[in-house]
Amino acid sequence: MLSGSLGLGHEMMTRSCASLLERSGWHTRSLDSMALLGSRAGPVANRLFGGLVTVPGIYDGLHFAHLRTGSKLAGLMARQAVARLAPALAADLDRRPADLILSVFATGAAVAARLKPGAPHRRTVVLCTDVTLHRIWVCEGTDLFLVTSPAAEASVRRFLPRAAVSVVPPPVRPAFYAAPAQREARQALGIPPGEPCLLVIDSGWGFGPLVQSVAALARAGVHVLAVAGRRRAIERRLRALARTVPLVRPFGFTDRVPELMAAADVVLTLPGATTCSEARVVGRRLLLLDVMPGHGRDNLQHELEMGGADVCGPAAAGVTASALAVLDKTARPAPPPGLAARWEPAYLAAFRQIGLDMPETPAAGRDPGSRVPVDARSAGQYRGHDRDGSPGPDQPGG
Fold first, then answer.
1. Which among 86, 140, 200, 286 is most buried, taking Cβ atoms within 10 Å?
2. β-pairing, 309-312 with 285-289?
3. Distance separating alpha carbons of residues 300 and 273, to the nearest angstrom
4. Mean pLDDT of the chain
5. For position 205, what pLDDT does the model report?
6. Are 200 and 210 in contact (CB under 8 A)?
7. CB under 8 Å, gap of 24 or more: what pairs does 364-372 form?
8. Between 391 and 36, where is the model more confident?
C-alpha cells in the first residue's frame, strides 16, 4: 500500500483497506510515498506542500489551472516525482515482491503505474476519495480506479477514456459502525443529556483559529469535544483552556473518535472524505470549514450536495454563529444510527473484477461489534465497469 504523510486521511484509508485485505487472506505492508523521496527531499516536499496550502490563492491556482487540467506544469511535477520515487519503490519490490499495489496517494499512484510494464502480472489499483482526480492520479498502467462518486469517475475518464473505474463507498473503519448510542457515549464523557454538544476535529492541516473557536463556542454554552490530533501545541492550548472553561473537553490523537461522534450533535471539521464518511456512518450532521483550497473546495461542494451538512468560514465569530444555528435545528437526543451499508463488499467485488483472489466475504465474516454483517447488502452502491467503459458483470446488460 502506498500512502502519504499529508494529513490523516491517507493513513485512515490505508488502515481500513489493509484490514479488509488481511481479513481476506492477504499480507499487507505500507510505504509512505513522501518518505520514498529520501531523507532530505521527503521533508522538503512536506514543508513545501504544507506551505502552499496555507496560501489559498497559490494552491487554488495550482490545483484548478494545472493539476485538474493536466497542464505542462502538472506533467513536469509528475515526471520529477516519479523520477525520484521509482528507483526506491523498485528496489523495495525487488526485496519484497508484491502481487498488488494499492495507492491512496497521487504520487504513489503515478510511480506504481510507471513500474507496471516491468511486472505486468502485478495489479495496480488507485483509491481516491476526492470528488475530482487530478492529472497525477490518473496514469496509464493502472488496472483499476476506485472512486466514490460519478463525478470522480468522469474525472478519470477525462484523461483515460477507457480506464477501468468502479464507484464504491468511502472506506470507514469498523469501530464507527459499532459506535455507542448517544446517551451511552455522553454518560462516559460526563455530558448531560439534552444539552448541545459539538465535536471539533483538527485533521492535521491547522486551518483557522481552532482554539479561539472552541473557546467562543464553550462560552456560548456549548459542550465542545476538541480533538487536536497530532498537533501537540494545539493540544496543550486546549488543555490550558479547559482548566478555565469547563465545557471544553480536550483530546490529542485518540482512538475514541467513534465515541466522541456518538456523543456530539454536530461534527465541525474540514471537508475531508474520511472524517465526513465516519460522521455519516454514526449519523451526525456536519458543519464544514471552507478553508481547504484546491481539492478541498471540490470536496466541500460534494459533501453539501449529499446533504446533512452546512458550511461556515474559519473566523471564530462565524464558526460560533453557524454552529449555534445548526445546533438549534438539530434534534436532541439524536436518533440511533441507522444500519449503514458496509463498504467492504463493493471493494471485494471490484478487486475480483481484475482477477484478484478475494473471498465472497472476509474471513472474519463479521467485523467485531459491527451492526451489519459484511455481506452483499451494500452491493447496490457498487457500479462495475469493464475496461472499455461498458457495464461490468454486475450491471444490467453486462
1. 200
2. parallel
3. 9
4. 86
5. 52
6. yes
7. 364/23, 367/174, 367/177, 367/178, 368/174, 368/178, 369/174, 369/175, 369/177, 369/178, 370/174, 370/177, 370/178, 370/342, 371/177, 371/178, 371/337, 371/339, 371/340, 372/177, 372/339, 372/340, 372/341, 372/342
8. 36
DSSP codes of every residue in 40-68? THHHHHHHHHHHHHTSHHHHHHHIIIIIT
Q: Is the dihedral of CA 150, 175, 287, 250 positive or negative?
A: negative
Q: What is the pLDDT of residue 207?
A: 58
* Confidence band for 42, pLDDT divided at 50, 70 and 90: low
Query: Counting every residue, how long is the chain?
Result: 398
Give the mean model confidence (pLDDT) for residues 74-83.
Answer: 90
- Mean pLDDT lowest among 231-245, 354-368, 371-385: 371-385
Q: Hunting for cell 454518560 — which residue is that? A: 187
Please, what is the Cα angle at 349 between 346 and 280, to 5 degrees? 5
pLDDT at 129: 95
The C-alpha cell that represents 168 in the structure block? 464504491
Domains and CATH numbers, the chain: 2-173+342-381 (3.40.50), 180-328 (3.40.50.2000)
Quote the CA–CA distance of 196 and 313 in Å, as a whole number.
Answer: 21
N- to C-terminal Cα separation, the chain: 31
Q: Which of these, 96, 105, 101, 100, lies nearest to 35 by C-alpha position?
A: 105
pLDDT per position as a tens digit, 364-396: 444 433 333 333 333 333 344 433 333 343 333
pLDDT at 292: 87
Put residue 286 in one of left, alpha, beta given phi > 0 → left and psi -120 to 50 → alpha. beta
DSSP annotation of 337: P
Q: Are 247 and 215 in contact (CB under 8 A)?
A: no
Give the pLDDT confidence score for residue 45 in this predicted structure: 67
Q: State the residue for C-alpha cell 505492508.
A: 29
Peptide bond into 196 cis (omega under 30): no
Cβ count near 39 (within 10 Å): 7
Distance CA 344, CA 334 (A): 27
Q: Stretch 305-330: mean pLDDT, rounded?
A: 94
Cα 338 to the center of its chain, rounded Å: 21
